[in-house]
Structure prediction request, 330 residues.
Amino acid sequence: MTFNEILAWPIPVLITDTQRNVWFFNERWQTLYGANREKVYAQSAAMVRLGLAKQSDYDKIIASLMQSGVWSGAVVNRHFEDKHYMVILYTVFKWEVEGQSVYVSLHQPIDLMSVEGTTAIGSLNTVEGIFLKTIAKIAEWNDPEQERHVWRVSALSRWIAEMASTVGLIADEDVDVIEAASVVHDIGKAAVPKEILFKPGGLSEGERTHVKDHTVIGGEMIDVLYSQMNSIHNLYRKLFEFAKDSALTHHEWWNGHGYPKGLAGEEIPVVGRVVALADVIDALLSKRPYKASWPPDKVKEYIMQSSGKQFDPLFVHLVIAEWDARPVEE
Prediction:
């Protein structure tokens, strides 16, 4: 991820160093605040704050950034030119970009949120959706194939969820949420040593345990992040619950022989069942350091044989019926 790629996100973005001195901002941020480019670069991120909150409130934001590297919530900022107040849904997180430790902040004016932007809580273009996409990058560092895997699984998850919604297995409003939550299913792999993840041969028992731990670690990471996401929209809670379930349960099996908890059947959250199927479809179709890619017919046969064992049989039925219509990376 480069600075230019971050600044191209479809939301106002400000980037500062760890002392909160301004480094970069995009045109959306400049337009939102009516900012004069030369003046902004001479100031710190505190320039848009108003005296409407106690200093202790800002101290809590800094403390959160120091402790966990992330904070999100509602703040009141001001327009540079006419000084009017703006209520901003504000997310800031510490990130390593092009070898530099920086703070990336996202600014969404609440009064300008569209109905669609407020209610489509799983949309990958909402503040929280973009935030999930961003933290998903943590598990993709140094592995371009992992990045492609994440987005293919996201497309497959949406495909499965849309089919399931048409027959009443999934609520229509949860399709977007499942798509967004799926992008962090492997976030816990950030804690797995790269030499294990990319090992071409078989793994030892200890190494397999390391890999399996990515589910629990991923769930814990989402928990910590959500505890800091003091979003004013309670609807966003579902997105983070689904994100946690995606990370924690996508290796559970329908027959209870999966991990980490050995859940079975409908004990497994619906997003875990969807992502489990999407994840395996893409994994088998893809070349990995330890395996060659499987032909589509062989993958289809495996999915059918695993119905009621590894996968929810109702979801398998939908996938097999529309197998040739599955999303394929161009």
In short: The beta strands are 13-17, 22-25, 70-78, 85-97, 100-109.
